[in-house]
């Protein structure tokens, strides 16, 4: 199993601090609590039904022709490689490591590619996997560039898989409206933007034939009744969605400025986190110094840098700034 953000209990044991004393900025999730009312008893006692309107709400929210609910986009990441015969798969890296692992486990030939190398590499690929905005570097690629890659792949029966888990704050950059194109597969997650990672709900946006094959592979009742009920509530709440986007974009701009003012200026960000490039040893030392003060950020083993999530309250903002300045001063 690969490591992910949010391993707060593990950090608490490692650094000897109680859970309640931590500021967890390691996940890249929206830090606010979405207002979820009590759910009807029937969603707990009845089997889930797929004609409950969830897909239609998702299609409207994502502006996509078709949407298949899945148990988090991770379920699709693991299942999609099983729908193809052995293929040559390019992963635009560095990125979310579960993509590489899933394709390798399914027996595909996997190679790392870069934006600069893709013009030459595309003709040797059957599948290209891109995370946009990227996790953890926050690199964002234009729709025009991605669609040009898709066209070349589709001409030879290939796939372009675009993981848009962090796209919700900037929906105008999404490929969802084009997801009916053969060979284009867009993954979306309810957990990041809505701050509901525990619900385990995501969506696959693609042509009907591919969605049918994926649905048959996943089997019946792939998404729980409570998850479907929560999904319908939040996808229909356009007013809160707009407020969320504005707040997230203001907060990520504030985090960007805070990190820049502290001297961490090399990197990038999206609406849900900021990334800062650091030498591997320097990143490890800063991670430890912050953790010793009860501030958990995300350290990556093979990528030189740290990912910072968004604080929730003014007190958390002040704590992050104070802990960061103290840590950098200690390491200077």
From TrEMBL:
The EC class name is lyase
- Its Gene Ontology biological processes? cobalamin biosynthetic process
Q: Which cofactors?
A: pyridoxal 5'-phosphate
Reported EC number(s) for this entry are 4.1.1.81
Q: Which reaction does it catalyse?
A: O-phospho-L-threonine + H(+) = (R)-1-aminopropan-2-yl phosphate + CO2
> The Aminotransferase class I/classII large domain covers which part of the protein?
57-298
Q: Does the keyword Hydrolase apply?
A: no
Q: Name one GO molecular function term.
A: threonine-phosphate decarboxylase activity
* Pfam families xrefs: Aminotran_1_2
Q: Which UniProt keywords are present, listed alphabetically?
A: Cobalamin biosynthesis, Lyase, Pyridoxal phosphate
Pathways per UniProt: Cofactor biosynthesis; adenosylcobalamin biosynthesis
- Keyword Ligase annotated: no
NCBIfam families registered for this protein in UniProt = L_thr_O3P_dcar
Q: What does this protein do?
A: Decarboxylates L-threonine-O-3-phosphate to yield (R)-1-amino-2-propanol O-2-phosphate, the precursor for the linkage between the nucleotide loop and the corrin ring in cobalamin.
Quote the PANTHER family the UniProt record gives: HISTIDINOL-PHOSPHATE AMINOTRANSFERASE-RELATED, THREONINE-PHOSPHATE DECARBOXYLASE
What's the name of the protein? Answer: threonine-phosphate decarboxylase
Which source organism? marine sediment metagenome
Lineage, top ranks: unclassified sequences, metagenomes, ecological metagenomes
């Amino acid at each position: 199993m690969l490591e992910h953000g949010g391993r707060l209990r593990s950090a608490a044991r490692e650094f000897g601090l109680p859970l309640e004393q931590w500021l967890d900025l390691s996940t890249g999730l929206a830090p606010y609590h979405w207002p979820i009312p009590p759910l009807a008893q029937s969603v707990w006692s009845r089997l889930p039904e797929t004609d409950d309107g969830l897909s239609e709400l998702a299609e409207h929210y994502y502006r996509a022709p078709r949407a298949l609910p899945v148990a988090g986009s991770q379920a699709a990441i693991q299942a999609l490689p099983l729908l193809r015969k052995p293929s040559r798969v390019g992963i635009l890296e560095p990125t979310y490591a579960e993509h590489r692992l899933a394709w390798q486990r399914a027996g595909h030939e996997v190679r790392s590619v870069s934006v600069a190398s893709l013009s030459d590499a595309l003709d040797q690929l059957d599948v290209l996997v891109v995370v946009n905005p990227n996790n953890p570097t926050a690199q964002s690629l234009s729709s025009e560039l991605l669609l040009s890659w898709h066209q070349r792949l589709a001409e030879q029966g290939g796939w372009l898989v675009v993981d848009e888990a962090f796209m919700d704050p900037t929906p105008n950059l999404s490929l969802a409206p084009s997801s009916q194109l053969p060979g284009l597969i867009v993954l979306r997650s309810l957990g990041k933007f809505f701050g509901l990672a525990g619900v385990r709900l995501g969506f696959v946006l693609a042509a009907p034939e591919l969605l049918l094959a994926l649905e048959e592979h996943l089997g019946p009742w792939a998404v729980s009744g409570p998850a479907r009920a929560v999904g319908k509530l939040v996808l229909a709440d356009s007013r809160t969605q707009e407020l969320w986007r504005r707040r997230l974009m203001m907060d990520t701009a504030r985090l960007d400025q805070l990190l820049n003012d502290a001297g961490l200026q090399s990197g990038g960000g999206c609406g849900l986190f900021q990334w800062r490039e650091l030498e591997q040893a320097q990143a490890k030392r800063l991670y430890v110094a912050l953790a010793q003060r009860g501030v958990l950020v995300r350290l990556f083993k093979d990528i030189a840098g740290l990912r910072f999530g968004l604080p929730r309250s003014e007190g958390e903002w002040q704590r992050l700034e104070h802990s960061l300045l103290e840590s950098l001063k200690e390491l200077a």
